[in-house]
Every structure is written in structure tokens, then in C-alpha cells.
Design a protein that fits this description.
single chain; 16% helix
């Protein structure tokens, strides 16, 4: 009888230790995944925001010649970055129709930021143009396709156009040909030589929306136009992103340094934004990770949640490469 009682006690202790160890391992793995997702989200934002408005080695002082027929939100390459803040069920400034039409649509728990920049490395010209109307020649097999939105740039000028044809390294840019947006003219306004490079341009919009992978959670989504990788848009990129705020560093005295950091609805002139501060609130995709609700502070506001998820706040200061010395 005594031996049986002792055996039951020992088994009970072993079971308790096992359960505790299993819970510790579960929490540790979940926190590691949370931190990894957070680092990946910050890396994505850093990469795209840093390159917002890139125009080649000429920098921001040389505006590109833009021969695209479209001047809508998705093709406003003269404005490298724009944003929207959720406030009281509304967006300030109001979201463009191309964003409200997305599925899923942005959720008010996070900001929306759109960046316009190059996609991938530059491709050097293989020959000098004979005239501003001439085709552009790059190495055969370069990652370019008919329909791509391109920018050709050197340190003195740049031009934005649509590739109306591409074969054997020769890029055509005829006027009025192909799908919209078309080119309004074949004239790129400059004869570009072998010191110039060709870049693909993309407009990417970041936002928070319900996760398609983890019900009852939210994720960081990206919508890319054009869609060079062929994936259906928008794409769910990072799970567990619960809040997303971007504060914009605005240069008010033309010294190319931020004088203040403000929300999207307070920016006076988007052309004066030289840096950005990204704030992310990451949350575990599984609930009941803690014994009780865990208070947290995000963007200066302290909150006691109703759930028992674990959370982590991340911040990154990003300098726009095209806007600083």
C-alpha cells in the first residue's frame, strides 16, 4: 500500500514536471516565431521605404521625364511615398479607390503606406541610343518583359515609360501601343549611353488585414503593381502583425534632415519626407499563452488586452535613400 502511494506521488510529480516543461517549450517556440516574424516585417518595410522615390544616381533634384498616359495613384512615380492613417473609422487622407477595392481591404487597426521605387537591380545599357526615339539595348536574357514599367536613368537624366516590346535585349517604347498605361510619345527626352541603367518600377502598398492562414488574427499584406512575380495580389506576408503605424520625418527647412515626425494626415508635403519611423505591434497567433492578460504599450498608449496573447513592440527608423545626402 505504501509503495503504491509513493509510486502514484512520483508519477504525479513526473507528470507535473512534464506538463510544465511542455508549456515552457511551447511558449519559448511561440516567442521565437513572434520575434522572427517581427524581424522579417521590419526587413520588408526597411527595404521598400528606404528605396522610395529612387531615380538613379541623379538623386531627387532631377525629376524624370514620364511619358506614361496614366497619372493615377498607382503611377505617380514623382511621389515616392504616401500614407494614410485610420482615425475614428475613417482614413486620413482618404484611401485611393485602388486600395479600397483590394480583397482583403485594409483594416483600421493599422496605417496604410504606399511606396513607389525600383524593383531589383539596374540593368546597364549595352549600346548608346542614336536618338531620344531610339530603342534601348541591354544584354539578351535580362529580366525584362513586354509590358513592364521601366525607368532608364544616368546621373544627368531619367525617363519613365512602358516597354511595348522586348526581344533579344532590345526594348521598344512606341507611343500608344500595348495595354494601358501606354506611352504618350516615343521620345524619352534624352539620348542615354552605356553609363545609364534600366530599372523596373513598382508601386507597393502595405496594410494590415485579417489573416487568411490564421483565423481571428491579422497579418501584414502587400499589394504590388505591376505584379512581376505572377502571384495573385495582394499577398499575405507576415502573420501576427496586430498594429502598424508609420510616422513620417518631414524636412521643413530644405536641409534634407527631418525636423519632425508626424502621422500621415499631418504631412504638409510628401515631397519633403526624408525618413520614416515604423512601429509594429506583434502578437502571438495562438491565444492563452499567458496565465493572465498581459498589458502592453504601443505608440505611447498603454493597453490591457482582453485575451492572453503575448505581444512585442518593434520600432525601426528608416532613411529614404533618395532624399538624403
Amino acid at each position: 500500500m505504501v509503495a503504491s502511494t509513493v509510486g502514484v506521488l512520483i508519477l504525479g510529480v513526473i507528470g507535473t514536471i512534464y506538463d510544465n516543461s511542455k508549456q515552457v517549450t511551447r511558449v519559448s517556440d511561440t516567442i521565437s516565431r513572434l520575434q522572427e516574424n517581427g524581424r522579417f516585417a521590419i526587413q520588408l518595410l526597411d527595404r521598400d521605404v528606404r528605396m522610395a522615390g529612387f531615380r538613379g544616381c541623379g538623386g531627387p533634384t532631377i525629376p524624370p521625364v514620364n511619358v506614361l498616359s496614366a497619372t493615377s495613384y498607382l503611377y505617380q512615380y514623382d511621389v515616392g511615398i504616401t500614407g494614410n492613417r485610420a482615425s475614428g473609422g475613417a482614413w486620413l487622407p482618404g484611401l485611393d479607390a485602388s486600395i479600397t477595392a483590394l480583397s482583403p481591404a485594409p483594416q483600421a487597426g493599422g496605417d496604410v503606406v504606399t511606396v513607389r521605387h525600383i524593383d531589383g537591380p539596374g540593368i546597364p545599357l549595352a549600346a548608346r541610343m542614336a536618338s531620344p526615339q531610339d530603342t534601348l539595348q541591354v544584354s539578351a536574357g535580362s529580366p525584362i518583359a513586354t509590358g513592364d514599367i521601366l525607368m532608364v536613368a544616368d546621373c544627368a537624366a531619367s525617363a519613365i515609360f512602358r516597354a511595348t516590346s522586348y526581344a533579344g535585349g532590345v526594348i521598344g517604347h512606341d507611343a500608344g501601343a500595348g495595354a494601358a498605361p501606354t506611352n504618350t510619345t516615343i521620345n524619352l527626352g534624352q539620348i542615354f549611353g552605356t553609363d545609364a541603367s534600366v530599372y523596373r518600377l513598382v508601386t507597393r502598398t502595405y496594410f494590415i488585414a485579417p489573416s487568411a492562414r490564421k483565423p481571428n488574427t491579422t497579418s501584414l499584406w502587400i499589394n504590388s503593381v505591376p505584379n512581376y512575380d505572377g502571384q495573385p495580389q495582394p499577398v499575405e506576408m507576415v502573420e501576427g502583425v496586430e498594429r502598424f503605424v508609420l510616422l513620417y520625418g518631414e524636412d521643413l527647412d530644405n536641409d534634407r534632415a527631418a525636423n519632425r515626425y508626424v502621422a500621415a494626415d499631418t504631412v504638409v508635403n510628401w515631397a519633403n519626407v526624408v525618413s520614416a519611423k515604423a512601429l509594429l505591434l506583434m502578437a502571438t497567433t495562438n491565444d492563452n499563452m499567458a496565465m493572465s492578460p498581459q498589458p502592453y504599450k504601443f505608440n505611447g498608449v498603454a493597453t490591457v488586452p482582453a485575451d492572453r496573447r503575448l505581444r512585442q513592440s518593434l520600432t525601426s527608423l528608416i532613411t529614404l535613400r533618395n532624399k538624403t545626402p
